[in-house]
Amino acid sequence: MKAVILVSGGMDSLVTAAIALEQGFVPAAMHINYGQRTWQKELESFRSICRHFGIAESLEVDVPFLSRIGGSSLTDHSMPVSGPDLHGSSIPTSYVPFRNALFLSMAVSWSEVIGAGKIFIGAVEEDSSGYPDCRKVFYDAFNTVIELGTRPETHIEIVTPLIGMQKSEIVRKGMQLGVPFDFSWSCYKREGRACGVCDSCARRLRAFTQLGIEDPIEYEERPRYI
């Protein structure tokens, strides 16, 4: 069966792609540029991941209207990117309003055209940054939307293999699958060396630290998060 894999270029989508391939799906990778700060680095990571896994069918989509809508420090440079909040006490400034619903809608459209029966997305609920569109209940509801909004003969299901994992478990799974973590990019601020101090960098660094493994990407700062 063919599966569309949403690949941002981040660590979670990298491991998700490896899981989809391990399960025997024929992959079609989709990447979305939405005016985020690090879009060039994320696109580079996406292309490297596709080459690594030999994914021949891919689609790159530009949706610049999200940056015009604003409301997120990822798309509005006048807003500061949130620092580490590893306990997830509040929704960070990096939340892009309803972004995943838009991404999934595009993935469903492409899936219906190319005959894919699954959509893989690397959403993480338990150890996420508190984004409301990273919760299992959201994806369960969206599966109902797909059923109601596509042709009667169409059967597409969203798959979230990482949804209940901690970040350290995701790193462990990636190590087991031999994924190239050095191809992935998680920093919300920079495209050269990762900053090491944004919320996304902190969660990534903590995950590697908890496993006693060195994160292979370069950082401007490499604090030790516990």
Task: Please give a structural write-up.
The protein is α/β, with parallel strands linked by helices and 226 residues long. It has a single domain (2-166), classed as HUPs (Rossmann fold). Helix content is 38%, strand content 11%. It has a five-stranded parallel sheet, sandwiched between helices. Strand 4 (118-120), helix 5 (136-149) and strand 5 (157-159) form a beta-alpha-beta unit. Helix 1 (11-22) crosses helix 6 and helix 6 crosses helix 7 (199-210). The chain starts with a strand and ends in a 16-residue tail after the last helix. The mean pLDDT is 95.
How do the SSEs run, as a string of H and E? EHEHEHHEHEHH
Distance between the termini: 41 Å
Task: Please name the CATH architecture.
Answer: 3-Layer(aba) Sandwich
Low-confidence stretches: none
